[in-house]
Structures are given as structure tokens and as C-alpha cells.
Amino acid sequence: MVETVLSVEGLSVSFGGVLAVDNVSFSLKRQELHCLIGPNGAGKSTFFKAICGVVRPSSGRVWINGYEATRLPAHRVARLGVGIKMQVPNLLEGLSVEENLWIAARCRHSAREAEDIVESLMNLTGIEKYRTSLVSDLAHGHRQHVELASALATKPSILLLDEPAAGLSETEVDELSSILQQLKNQTAILVVEHNTRFVRMIAESITVFHKGRILAAGSPDQVFQNEIVKKVYLGSN
Amino acid sequence: MTSQQTGGFTHVFFVPIVCGTLVFLFAPVFASTYTLSLLCVYALLAISLGLIWGFGGILCFGQGAFFGIGAYSYVIFSINFGLPWTSVLFAIVFTVLATTCFGAAMFYGRLGDVYLAVVTLVFTLILNRFLNSTAGPEYQIGSARLGGFNGIPGFPTLNFPWSDAAFLSDMVFYILCCVILVISWVFCRWILRSHFGRVLVAIRENEERVELTGYDVRLYKTAAFSISGGLAAMAGVLYANWAGIVTPNLFSLTLSAEIIIWTVVGGLGTLFGPMIGSAVLTAVKLGLGHQTLVDNFFVMGILLIAAVLVFPRGIAGAFSGRRVSVFGSKKKGKWQTRSNRTQEKLSND
Known about the structure:
A: Rossmann fold, B: mainly alpha, 69% helix
């Protein structure tokens, strides 16, 4: 069954005179793993934040799981079934790993369910041995995993990840790729990413942003063979 | 219910209660109950700030204002209706409503931390200036004249319920203050152990993360602010009964700053710390009041600087040794309501 879980129509975001996102339409299907790529300043993260409710769009509409989410505050977007991981690890620094996950899991589940979710997510992301460590004491890679687990703790139907592979070693990127492959049967995933190796590993479909607009969209093969994409983003080689 | 089921409830909960009771019982040997009642009132006021600042990350300069609103609303109601105990309830409800409106305006208006501190400071100063200008006969609520800088004296104070003429003695009032302080402490601990309290701590750590998870941060902060206002109002009511007069000085910048100093010196992120800070610093202040050699505020300032340098985590923090957490941890396959580290911390509390 093909079902659209995220639909964006004519979304624009401007900051003063700068049009960061220009009339973008986009959709994400259930169990789809979709990547947004593009050069710096292309508007990917702004588009991402507009979907999350962190940035208010100037025009356009957003539907999440059939509900209109345009201009909803971030917490209400999250409650529509969206798990969010921001570009810079955004965690409860003074709390332990399990406390971070518990807070997230408890938002939409009972205390007992939250405990089970925390355990399963620590196992999935390989951070169980750091359960009592303060998040602020963890290495960058583990912090990325903790935030991914936090985003998953609400059991979202849509997972939005902004540069989850940023700052990770190749081994850690491989691990992350493996985790996302496991997750894609449970949730739709939208990944904003710069790391083309990582994108090639995980993407089922790709959208390329350039100057606030969609430059190209399609399967990884179609996108990476696209001459215009090669020219503006990937390089001619 | 076993200790295991209650997550060490017996040890963690009753030891401070027993120790606190012993302190309250023997304190009158060393100081007058009149002075000790004031220390209890200020301890309650300090807890009200410690709750929202230490656990919610909300630095509020308006505790003096809520303290004053509680005291004034009690006095105005009791003068008009002559029902001291009902007036207590009215004062708390009125102040909670006022703080809810004020808090909602700030938090739903997405006021940043620094601006919130400034706005609450200005709010306090406005009330102070306003009440100082209410000396004229036109400033009268029912039978209660606000009285400007002279304040409102001569109002019905708390009595034994069976007789209007049976006023509380100093000792009984002291016991009442102790009981209310203990109940407030237990109430705050209960809040912090609840889901609400844990979210509050999470908000202190990273507001944006909590919001992205799906919590309405504004609602949680407004609720915490209201609870804090209610506690400050209770302290204000007790203060009015202790002093027998309310004046605009309750809204002074000095008092609001002192509450912050008590909390910092006692220890942020604990409930016991602000109580210790308020007791120690108020005792020092009262002691200094007997001499004219040095200015009180000069000594208090020096003490604050010294305390921050020697005990950067406050007096209570210095003796805990480990990080402050109100969360539990998972041991032996079950989530405990209190982890070992929290038990140690709470034992100090």
C-alpha cells in the first residue's frame, strides 16, 4: 500500500529579502528512505526546519499523516508522529543517556512502555554501555546515536534527520547506514545529508536542492547521472 | 509496601524528615521562636525560587512580587471578610492565578531567559512604586486602605479555628511555619519525582530538544511558574502574620535579590540548598543588625562572593559530591524510582 505520510505544497521560506526556499513541493511515502542533498546554502536545512515547525514558512502548506501541519509549533508537529534530529547534536547535556531516551519515550507512552522502548533503542543504536554516562561526556559519534535514538523514542511514523552522518568516521557511517536500513520498514525516513557515500548507501530516492528550489529528483542512479546535478553539486568527475 | 517497592522511600524520605524534625524541635533552645518563624518563612520563599530556577532553569526576579502579592491579598481579604484561614486560601489562589497569567504571557510570548529576568524585575519594581503611591484615601479595596509606604497594619491574623480571639502564640506559629515548610518540601519533592518534574529538569537542560520531542515547553514552564508563585504566596501569608503589617518593602528589589543570593549560596538544583542558604544568610543578617560598624549589604556581598568561589555548587552541592539528578536508573531489570546517586543526593536534602 503506497501512502503519503508527508506532503508539502508550494512551500516558501524567506528571511527578510532572502528567499531561502522557493515554492517547493515534495512528498514522502510510507517506508520510503529519501535523501535531500545539495550544496551549502541550497535551502535544505531551512526546508527541513519549516517542516519541523522550527521555522515559519512564508507560504505553502504541509500535511503530516493527513493532518495540516503548516505553521504548527514544533511540539505539535512532533505529536503528529514526527521524530526529529537536528543538524547539531541537540541533547539534554546534563542528563545520562537513558534519561535522555526516557524523557523522549515517555512523551507518548506509559512509564512501563517507555522503559521497554529505552532498552530496545539502546540495543539498536549500540549505546547501552553508556547508559549512565552523561551525554556531555560522550564522543561525537555516540552523541549522534543518542539523538537518533531520542528521535526514535516516540515511535514516529516519519523520521526527519538533518545531517546524521556529520562528523562520523567511516565505520560509524557504516553502522548508521545499517541502523537506518533496519528502520525503514517501520518508518518513513527523510535525510538531509552532504556525505554522498552515505547517501549512496541508504537512499531509495533523492531530491537535489539548489538555490532554494528542487533541481532534480528521482532514484539514486538517475540523480547521480544527471549532468546538471554533477555540474552544480557533485563535480564533473 | 516494601522499601524496594518504594525505591528506597524509607531511607531517602524519612531520614531528612526525622533530621529536620529534630532541628525544628531543638532550634528554640538556641533562638527565639519569633526569629525561627522568620527563618522558616524565608526558607519557604527560597524553595519557591529553588524549584523553578534550580530545576526548571527559570531565573525569576519576581519572587519578591509574588511574596508581596500573597501577603497583600491575604491582608485585604481578611480585613474585608474577617476569615483568616479562608483568607490564606484566597491569597494563594489569587497569587497562583496572577502568576499563571503573568507566566503564560511571558512563556507563550517566547521570552528569552535574560528578558524574562528583566521583565520579572521590572514587574517587581512597578508594584513597589505603585504601592508606595497608594497613600491617598482613594486607594481602598473594600474596607482595606492600601496606605502607601506605611502599608496596612491591624488586620485579623491567624487564630485557632474555634475562637476568633484565640490568637496563635509565637510557639504555635513557629510550629505552624515548620509544618507548612515540611509539607511544601514534600510537595516539591513529589513534583520533582513525577513525570512533570522530570520534564522540567529536561527543559532546564535543553528546551529545544524537549519541544522537538513533543512536549509543550510553554505549558510546563507556566505550570512550574504558577506552583512557585503559590509557594511564594504561602510564604507571604506567613510573613504578614509574623510581622503584623504589610508594606511595599515586600516588593523591594533588595528582597528579590536576597532570594537569589540565598539560592546561589545554598545550592542550585537542590531543594535543601536554598533552605540552608536562606537560614544561614538571614541569621547572619539579623546578627549584623546588632552592630553599626559595617554595612549589612557590604558583608552580605562579600559572603556571596566568598561562597561562590569556595562552593561553586553551593553549600548543599559541596556536600553531595555527585551530580544532581531527580531521575531514576534501571537496575536489576527494573526501573527504580531513585538511583543510588539520587539517593545520596536526596539524603543530603
